[in-house]
Specification:
This protein is an alpha/beta fold. Helices cover 40% and strands 19% of the residues. A four-stranded parallel sheet has the order 1-7-2-6, with helices on both faces. Strands 3-5-4 form a three-stranded parallel sheet, with helices on both faces. Strands 8-9 form a two-stranded antiparallel ribbon. Strand 4, helix 4 and strand 5 form a beta-alpha-beta unit.
Length: 256
């Protein structure tokens, strides 16, 4: 049976990448996009500071025009960040950068997944805000068979453009799923249950993410701070939602 012919009734589903999001788009009410290293982590850092974030699929001349159209600063590549362009996809650079009210954040995976969810709620999830996202979904009555949620792990790309599943995104997605399941007893698809189980089985998330392929790659390139921030588990209570093409912390869960 082809994947497009499968109709599931689980309250929480889990898939990988833009293609996975496209397959689930017609059957869910909400998408949670998870790109731990580093798109959705960067979004949480930015909205924690009060910045509105516009995701954009390409980092090219069209991004420059898009940023100008929205009166926003344009984030550059990690290695291009400097005094003249302090905003980048690096969470550490964003945290250290001057405040800007509006930021365009190019990210092929995160933006492509968000674009697949036309007409649906789209939330940015990460290890930093997994519990807050789970709490918000529960409050909104999402995650039931009648109002299903798709948690989408962005993954990375191999040089040929094919999807490379990323351990940190599996764990970030699992953290969101586990939080929602604990609150409302949501019915999980087998894939979602395995993702949640993987998260629960990890004792030292910082060490696991730092030792993963993506984590080692960033650390070796001099971006250990990005891995450190990405593993601030529940360090943020912001729930960034995509509204009119931009992520804004429209829901922040108070916590004692």
């Amino acid at each position: 049976m082809r994947a497009t012919e499968v109709h599931l009734t689980h309250g929480v589903r889990f898939e990988w990448g833009p293609t996975g999001a496209e397959h689930l788009a017609a059957d869910v009410d909400c998408f949670v996009v998870v790109d731990v290293l580093s798109f959705t982590t960067s979004v949480t850092v930015a909205v924690d500071a009060g910045t509105t974030v516009f995701p954009y699929r390409w980092r090219d001349e069209t991004a420059v025009a898009f940023a100008a159209q929205h009166s926003a600063e344009l984030a550059v590549g990690r290695r291009a960040a400097g005094p003249g362009a302090p905003w980048s996809l690096s969470p550490a650079a964003l945290r250290a950068a001057p405040f800007t009210p509006r930021l365009v954040l190019p990210s092929p995976n995160g933006s492509a997944i968000s674009a697949s969810a036309k007409g649906k709620h789209v939330v940015a999830g990460s290890l930093r805000n997994a519990t807050a996202v789970g709490e918000w979904l529960a409050r909104e009555g999402l995650g039931t068979a009648e109002t299903p949620v798709a948690v989408i792990a962005a993954g990375e790309r191999w040089p040929d453009g094919s999807l490379r599943p990323a351990l940190e995104d599996l764990l970030g997605a699992g953290a969101v799923i586990a939080a929602l399941h604990e609150l409302v007893g949501a019915t999980l698809s087998p894939e979602a249950a395995v993702a949640a189980g993987a998260f629960k089985q990890v004792d030292d998330l910082k060490a696991v993410v730092a030792g993963s392929f993506s984590g080692r790659e960033l650390i070796d390139d001099g971006f250990a701070g990005d891995v450190e921030i990405a593993t601030e588990v529940d360090g943020s209570t912001a729930v960034p939602m995509l509204v009119d093409g931009a992520f804004t912390a429209v829901h922040t869960v108070p916590r004692d």
